[in-house]
């Protein structure tokens, strides 16, 4: 079975993925799980994951504001409550893992989702067994939650973590309600599945008020059931922006994670042509921007252009009547891509939008040939 995580890191401005194979069955979607989750979008602040995020937030490396959101009263509560336990072994071990490679942030949080609590004991859910093996060129052979399970249980017991978590359930529930109100995930899903011949049965948003700018996504499949896990920050409101632009940017953060799961299978069909065009890296990435090192092959470069460009198409269909807002959204996308080291984003997105507006059926796969022909002439 293949396992791939696609991650976006604001700190490094990158998105990358790698297939990691394993003989272990990584997940188990049985009939009861499928019945409970089919055609649903679930928003979670998972108790095991929140434990990991809290531990990461009190590490020395966790002082990085791009890793940990430090702008909330909740963060202050976490620091005040848990800093006295920062000398416990699991905190020091997690800090060492982050020093080794920042990707361990995803590995730890992702695999925590495969566990739950039985009193203060940590036990497998028997659903997700080893969901997060690697990102980019970095991978692990052993599930780190299993490696550090006794250390985690010590932290839980010494800090009375479960009491803290349950006392904050009203706050967590308010953040989940914000997702329902502002994220428009059902509308995004409908738009994407009308434009790709690809269906995902279940969306599961795994969020936390401690997630900073480090996001990830992957679609898992078992028993012909597909579920997408989205590791995303909570909804944010920038007081400097209009309500409409705030709404659009929150959707963009989510959309540009979700659509990787739809674009990837189509790009594989055009891999040979994509490789022949985007292998000329100097035209498509700014090599001086070191974050582009994390897009080491042509298809990753192309997919990053397209997944961000697609949000302009989504915005065109849903916000297009507001010309000022559309201009702001387009400028946001183009400037973000330029900062990430993709200098042709403006021209690419203009061509993509033009092709989309002229298309009759609006299927994204049917735009590939013309878009790649245009790309070959750059």
UniProtKB/TrEMBL annotation:
Signal sequence, start to end: 1-22
Swiss-Prot/TrEMBL keywords: Signal
Protein name per the record: DUF4932 domain-containing protein
Gene source species: Pedobacter ureilyticus
């Amino acid at each position: 079975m293949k396992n791939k995580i696609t991650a976006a890191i604001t700190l490094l401005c990158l998105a990358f993925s790698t297939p990691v194979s394993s003989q272990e069955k990584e997940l188990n979607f049985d009939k009861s799980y499928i019945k409970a989750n089919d055609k649903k979008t679930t928003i979670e602040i998972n108790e095991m994951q929140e434990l990991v995020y809290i531990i990461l937030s009190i590490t020395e490396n966790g002082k990085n504001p791009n890793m940990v959101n430090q702008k909330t009263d909740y963060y202050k509560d976490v620091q005040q409550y848990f800093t006295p336990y920062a000398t416990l072994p699991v905190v020091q071990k997690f800090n060492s893992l982050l020093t080794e490679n920042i990707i361990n942030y995803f590995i730890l949080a992702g695999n925590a989702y495969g566990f739950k609590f039985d009193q203060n004991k940590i036990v497998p859910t028997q659903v997700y067994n080893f969901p997060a093996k690697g990102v980019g060129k970095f991978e692990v052979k052993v599930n780190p939650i299993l490696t550090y399970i006794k250390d985690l249980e010590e932290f839980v017991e010494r800090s009375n973590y479960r009491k803290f978590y349950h006392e904050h359930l009203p706050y967590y529930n308010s953040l989940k309600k914000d997702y329902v109100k502002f994220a428009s995930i059902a509308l995004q899903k409908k738009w994407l599945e009308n434009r790709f011949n690809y269906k995902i049965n279940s969306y599961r948003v795994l969020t936390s008020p401690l997630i900073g700018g480090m996001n990830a996504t992957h679609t898992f499949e078992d028993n012909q059931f597909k579920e997408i896990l989205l590791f995303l920050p909570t909804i944010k409101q920038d007081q400097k922006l209009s309500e409409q632009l705030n709404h659009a940017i929150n959707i963009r953060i989510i959309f540009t994670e979700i659509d990787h799961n739809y674009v990837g299978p189509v790009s594989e069909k055009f891999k040979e042509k994509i490789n022949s065009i985007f292998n000329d890296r100097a035209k498509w990435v700014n090599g001086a921007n070191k974050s582009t090192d994390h897009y080491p092959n042509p298809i990753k470069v192309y997919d990053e252009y397209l997944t961000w460009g697609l949000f302009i198409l989504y915005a065109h269909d849903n916000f297009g009547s507001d010309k000022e807002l559309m201009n702001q959204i387009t400028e946001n996308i183009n400037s973000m891509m330029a900062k990430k080291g993709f200098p042709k984003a403006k021209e690419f997105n203009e061509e993509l939008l033009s092709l989309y507006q002229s298309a009759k059926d609006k299927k994204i796969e049917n735009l590939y040939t013309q878009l790649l022909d245009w790309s070959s002439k750059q």
